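Teaching assistant here, posting this on the class forum so everyone can see the example we discussed in section. The complex has two components, and the goal was to see what a joint structure prediction looks like when all of them are supplied at once.
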Amino acid sequence: MVVKVAINGYGTIGKRVADAVTKQDDMEIVGVTKTRPTIEADLAIQKGYPLYAVAEEHEQGFLDAGIPITRGTLLALLQKADIVIDGSPGKKGAANKPIYEKAGVKAIWQGGEKDSLVETSFNALTNYNKAWGKRFVRVVSCNTTGLARTLYPVQQKFGIKAAYVTMVRRGADPRESKKGPINAITPVLKVPSHHGPDAQTVIDGLNIFSLAVAVPTTIMHLHCNTVELEDKNATTEDVLALWDATPRIKFVEGGKGIVSTAQVMELARDLNRERADFNEIIVWKDAVTVQDGVLYYYQAIHQESDVVPENIDCIRAMCELEPDNMKSIEKTNRALGIE
Amino acid sequence: MVVKVAINGYGTIGKRVADAVTKQDDMEIVGVTKTRPTIEADLAIQKGYPLYAVAEEHEQGFLDAGIPITRGTLLALLQKADIVIDGSPGKKGAANKPIYEKAGVKAIWQGGEKDSLVETSFNALTNYNKAWGKRFVRVVSCNTTGLARTLYPVQQKFGIKAAYVTMVRRGADPRESKKGPINAITPVLKVPSHHGPDAQTVIDGLNIFSLAVAVPTTIMHLHCNTVELEDKNATTEDVLALWDATPRIKFVEGGKGIVSTAQVMELARDLNRERADFNEIIVWKDAVTVQDGVLYYYQAIHQESDVVPENIDCIRAMCELEPDNMKSIEKTNRALGIE
């Protein structure tokens, strides 16, 4: 069976998921949507994706720009699809639910939507089975995905009494030129930040406290995490071995010159990763420290791409293509060339 | 008695402490030093501070630039002083200790030097008495000063089981144009960061865990703090009342438009603070939250100036001018126009 996937919103996440779907042997793209004839519309056509206007009022814009859209809008596209990836900007995707319900398709939303919109939130490592056969699921945000990948194995192996996390967030994505801050640090004044409760939607029983700030950088988020372990005998080496055996975690070392997110992204370019993305969570190996039962670590999150393989695994769970989460993760990783 | 104060190193801290000393009625500046004839040398002369070259090899530079230095170098200046403020760049001040010993003056170093260099580290609120009559003292760093001012009263009143702090540090001062990062987040890979142990030099028995990153901003540090309290009955209102009664802590509110460090510094400009500095620690009042015995808060630190009043109080303790720390703090604050 080859699952037919529609992308509603060919933007930062949508375009990446489209390319990732194309690289799998058990799913294919039947079309993508946009509202406006931007350069990304040109690129979708060049890649051979059938391009649909989201609604009728958007069609003339594409025709005026000479972009050869497939007629019929989102509704026509959904008739051809088994499942739709909602790539709407944060908080805008919820409004599409009645459309997906009426069209009879399954749907995956991104982390900008609420957990209450869907049957379950999703992370491939922590709760793949909960999405099995489900119709409406949300892949958690880039930050929550990062927390899930590193905290879940620690919780399972050593137990977590409490995790204290501070998220230092990029102010804007690289493609943006109108957002800030450009010389300030902006705290998230709603305390605790939503990231802690969000992590609890994919990790049962996690005791987590979160604070967050936005800073003037475009390329990655960075998490500063302090974790009180249940197992007071755990060592730094134990944690390193655990994460080394966990998929989608990649170590870097300050000792090799990777002293900031700048050198992390340079490595993605040197490795010729697609779009210079890092789908893995980046952990500074030489900073991982367990002292008196407390684990300290820094991790960097490539906000545009870490959820992309999660969307692929989520399709596989919802469409009942592969019952074993680790097999799905491995299959996805192999197809995408990630660790 | 009017204490005679020398400033060795008229830079970011030195120039501010010089002006602050001048505003007190129990101390005066007898001279300041520099190594090079920069614009700050011109400004020192304009302010009427006797300017000395640090060493003989520096004198010709000033003479060539037509800057009227007082002849005789640092050694001559120290003969006129009771106490010297070492304003050397971080880690450079320790080398001056033999010079100060030989000259028979008391000396205050800044937070860039080690605790082991001196008889005691200093914060006016937490351990003023320890500096009483001492000869060699270190005022702790801007970040440690910030932690001391907010954590110490909480420790005294409610007890602290553990404080988990993440310091989001400015990458460079406003005057700098060669340092970074400009589009990256740089974690301090030595874990835990030195800030925790440094806070313990001025707060006895504080259980603190610290992590730190540098980010692309020039205007302030920001601390994201999560504190487990001993007293599980403490409320948000209790903590706000405590800090409201503590000197050198200033509340700001996101609800009034102060949503980042940018608006904090704009307020310092609007209040016409000298050099647009904020000597106080800035706490976001509407983010202070106590929940299930855990206190969360954000505080911003004006890295160039929060230690300035501490240097004044430190002079007063070391020179036995005022035995009561709260009276010294009040006197300093009144003279400087701070809260």
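For the discussion questions: Chain A touches chain B through 46 residues (CB under 8 Å). The domain at 3-140+307-336 of chain A is CATH 3.40.50.720 (Rossmann fold). Think about how each of these relates to the inputs above.
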